[in-house]
Amino acid sequence: MRRAAAIVLFLLAYSPDVIASVANNDQESVNDQESVIDVMGKVSNHDYFELPWTKVYLPRIVLSEGEWFYYSSTKSAIDSGEFITEDDVLVRANGSEITLDMSITSHLIYVWMGLILTFIITFFAGKKYKSGNGRTSEPKGALLNMFEVLFVFIRDDIAKEFIPHDKYEKFVPYLFTIFMAIAFMNLFGLLPWAAAATANITVTATFALITFALTQINGSKDHWKHVFLFPGVPAWSRIILTPVEVLGLFTKPFALAIRLFANMLSGKIMIVSILGLIFVFTDLFGAYVGVGSGVFWVLLTAALYFLKVLVALIQAYVFTLLSAVFIGMAAEEHHHEHDETTVAHAQDVQS
Amino acid sequence: MGFLAAGIGAGIIAIGAGIGIGMIGKGATESIARQPEAAGDIRGAMLLTAVFIEGVALIGAIVCLILALGIGQ
To answer: What are the Cα distances from residue A224, in Å, to A67, A249, A322?
Structure first.
C-alpha cells in the first residue's frame, strides 16, 4: 500500500513538467494533428536496433544490377550518393531497380538472439547430460532442472501424444527448438524498447514453412492417399474432395503463420493504443484530465503486460502443439481402415 | 469507409469468436465437472479447439487492420 502511494506521488511529482510542456505545445499540437503516435512504428521492422539509451544503425546490404553494395547504415548509403530514400524505403538514385535487399534489420537481430539463446541453453544442458549429471543421478542445478521440465513437457505432452509412437523421437528436437525460439522472441517483445520478431509475418511464415516441409517429407503413404484418392467415398465426389484436400495442405501452415503473427502484433498495438489514450484525453479535455486518467491507463497497461507474458508462452506452446498435430496427422499410418471404431473401442477397454 | 468497415468487421469477429470459445468453455467445464479425473485431457482438447477458432478470428482481425490502415489503396 505504501509502495503504491509512493508510485502515485512519484507520478504526480512529474506532472507539472508534463502539464507545462503540454501547455507550451498546445498551439503546435493543433497544427500537426497528423503526427500523434506512431503505433505501427512500434511493431514494424526498422533499419536500427533500439536500446534504452541509443539507437544502433544496422548495415545495409543491397544487390542492384548484379552488384553488391555494403553500407554500415542507411545514412552512409545515402551519403555515398548511390541511394536515396522515398517514404523511408531505400531506392537507387539513378532509378534502377533493387534486385535483392539483404539488409540486417531489427527483427532479424531478435530472431538471431532467440536462436542463439536456444542454442546456448541446449548446448550447456547437453554438455551437463554428457558428463552424467541427470542421466546417472537426478539433475542438479536450477538451470538443468528447468531445462528438464520444459523438455519433458514438450516430449511427453506434445510429441508423444500427437505423433505416432514409433516416430515421435526424431521430431522432439525440432519441436523443442521451435518452442524455445518462439518463446524467447515473444518475450523479447515485452521489453518496452524492443520488438517481437514474431510480430513480423515473414518470420512466422518461415517457421510455418519449415513445419510444412517437415509434414510433407514425413507424410506416409496413407497421407497422400487421403489427399488425392480419399478412401471410402463415391468416385465422382473426389472431383470436389481432392481440390479441397490439396487446399487444406496449404491453409494449415498459413493459419499457423497468421495466428502467431496476429497475436503478437495485436498485443503491442493494444498496449501502445491504451497508453496513447493519455494523449487523446489530454487533447480532448485538457492536461489535468489527461495526466489524471493516465494513472488508470498505466495500471491497465500493467495488467495487460501480465496477460502478454501468458500469451507469449501460450502462443509458443500452441505453435509447437499444432506443428506436432500436423506432423502426426501426416505421419500416421492407418492399418485398420475398415474397423477404426472397433479398434478405438478395444483400446478404450484395454486402458 | 475503411474505418467503418474495420469497426463493423471487428465487432462481428468478436461476436463469432466469443460464441465459439464460450461454447468450448461450457463444454469443457461441464465435462470436467462430470469427470474431474479427466481434467488434463479435456483441458488439452479444449485448448486445441479454441486455438482453431482463434486462428479464424485473427485472420478476420488482420483483414480489419489492413482496412483500417488503408494498406493497398
So the answer is: 44, 11, 20
Rounded mean pLDDT of A41-69?
Answer: 79
Going by C-alpha positions, the residue among A140, A63, A138 that lies closest to residue A102 is A63
Question: Grid coordinates standing for A10?
Answer: 512519484
Measure CB to CB from residue B62 to each of A40, A262, A322 and give the nearest one. Answer: A262
CATH homologous superfamily of B2-69 equals: F1F0 ATP synthase subunit C (1.20.20.10)
Contacts with B61 from chain A: Cβ below 8 Å: 262, 266
Do A322 and B51 count as a contact with CB atoms less than 8 A apart? yes
If you average pLDDT over residues B51-58, what whole number do you get? 87
DSSP secondary structure of A238-299: HHHHHHHHHHHHHHHHHHHHHHHHHHHHHHHHHHHHHHHHHHHHHHHH-HHHHHHHHHHHHH
C-alpha A325/C-alpha A305 separation (Å) is 30
Beta-carbon separation of B51 and A259 below 8 A: yes
Residue contact A263–B47, C-beta within 8 A? no
Instruction: Give A233-265 pLDDT, tens digit per residue.
Output: 888 888 888 888 889 889 889 989 999 998 888
pLDDT, residue A134, reads 74
For the whole model, what pTM was predicted? 0.79
Q: Is the ipTM of this complex over 0.90?
A: no
A166 SS3 class = coil
Greater model confidence, A300 or B65: A300
Domain ranges of chain A: 107-335
Domain borders along chain B are: 2-69
C-alpha to C-alpha distance for A60 and A72, rounded to whole angstroms = 6
**Mean pLDDT over residues A262-276, rounded?**
85
CB-based contact B59 A318, cutoff 8 Å = no
